[in-house]
Every structure is written in C-alpha cells, then in structure tokens.
Design goal:
Elements (H helix, E strand, L loop, with lengths): L22 H9 L5 H12 L2 H4 L4 H5 L6 H18 L13 H11 L6 E7 L5 E9 L9 H10 L4 E7 L9 H17 L2 E9 L2 E4 L7
Parallel strand pairs: 3-4
Antiparallel strand pairs: 1-2, 1-3, 4-5
Helix pairs in contact: 1-2
Length: 218
C-alpha cells in the first residue's frame, strides 16, 4: 500500500508503529530519496517482484535499478543481512552443537536466497563448539565442485578435529542429489585419513533443510 500525499512523513511517525509499516514504507526508510522515498521504494519492489526477489539481487544488479546507486544498494543489502542475523543468530561459540537444528536455520537464512550453490564448513573444537565458519567455494545454479584439500587444510590450520559441511540448493528443495551423496562419502573418507571427523552435511533451501546424519546418509 502506497501512502497518500497527505499522510505524514514516515520519519515523523512514532517508532512504535514500525511493525505496522508496509513493505514499501520499510524499504523507504532504508533507501531514502529526498522527497519521494515511498515512490522509489514502490517502484523498486514492483521492478524486482517483491521482497523475496529483492533479497536475491546483488549490489551490481540493485545499483542498476532507477533511483538506486551503489551506496543505496549497499545500505539495502546491509539491512537485509541484519534482518537475517536477527531472525537466525549465529551458533554460540561457548556451547556444543547438539543437533542439526542448532546450525541449520542460521545457514538457511544466510544461503536460501543465493542464486548459486555455495559450500561452507563450520569448524568445531573437541567439544563440538564452533571455532570458525568458512565459505569454501561457490559454484553454479545446480552444482558446486569442491576440493577436499581446501576443507581439511582449513581444519588442520585452525586445529579443528570436527567439521559440519553445509551447502544450499537454489531451487529451494533440500533433497540430496546423487552428486551430494557422492561428495559426502568422499569427504568423510578424506576426513578419516587426516583425523578430522565430518559430523554432518546439511543441505539448506527455502523449503527447509536436510541433515544427512539424521537421515542416515552419512
């Protein structure tokens, strides 16, 4: 819903009303545009097809839209990233990972809008507490080749005896492909050789997540 001309400017309205603002109004607060922030916000959402599709654009794509320069595009993506982090906080560094759900939603919020497959490694200490999260590689819309040496050299460098692997499916469906299963088998074998245990391989997407350990596929 676009505000009427006689509606008070957003910045003069009580902050307690923030949750009642429309998508256009919230976006207008982020990007701003002199005297017509609502018009810019409405045009932007119409062009990209709504908030979900907006979240899938990168800086270069957004900065090419009318009224959005690179600075506004960066501000907008930063706001979206802050929203993701509030919705799914990072796993606590002082608590052991007890189940797939402890990390799956965090990664799902971070990766579900990616248009390409990415593989991450969550490095764990001997008590399975998070040490570091690393992006290992980025592939195409349907695949993401990975070199086991990259993963396990990082584990050894950070003295991590265990690791959880995570990658996204841009289609949204977290069901494992034959390539996913083969990759997992290779990585488990490689980890056994160097003394690093692969605790799980998570696949995340807009439709949810799958834990290969929970599914008996590890």
């Amino acid at each position: 819903m676009v505000m009427k001309e006689d509606t008070p400017p957003i910045e003069t309205r009580p902050l307690t009303e923030i949750r009642d603002l429309s998508d256009h109004e919230l976006l207008a607060l982020v990007v701003g545009d002199g005297k017509r922030p609502i018009g810019l916000a409405a045009d932007t959402l119409d062009r990209v097809g709504g908030l979900n599709r907006l979240a899938r654009r990168d800086i270069s794509e957004l900065s090419r839209l009318p009224g959005l320069d690179r600075a506004r595009a960066c501000t907008l993506l930063a706001a979206l990233e802050l929203g993701r982090r509030v919705a799914a906080p990072a796993p606590a560094a002082d608590k052991p990972i007890g189940c797939a759900a402890d990390v799956a939603e965090w990664f799902r919020c971070r990766l579900q809008d990616n248009s390409r497959e990415c593989i991450y490694a969550l490095l764990l200490d001997s008590r399975h507490r998070p040490l570091k999260s690393l992006r290992i590689t980025e592939g195409s819309w349907t695949s993401c080749p990975v070199d086991p040496k990259v993963i396990f050299s990082a584990c050894l460098r950070h003295q991590a005896p265990a690791v959880i692997l995570v990658h996204n499916h841009p289609s949204g469906d977290p069901s494992p492909s034959r390539d996913d299963l083969n990759l997992t088998e290779r990585l488990v074998r490689a980890g056994n050789v160097v003394g690093v245990r692969v605790l799980d391989h998570l696949i995340v997407g807009r439709e949810g997540f799958l834990s290969m350990a929970d599914a008996g596929l590890l």
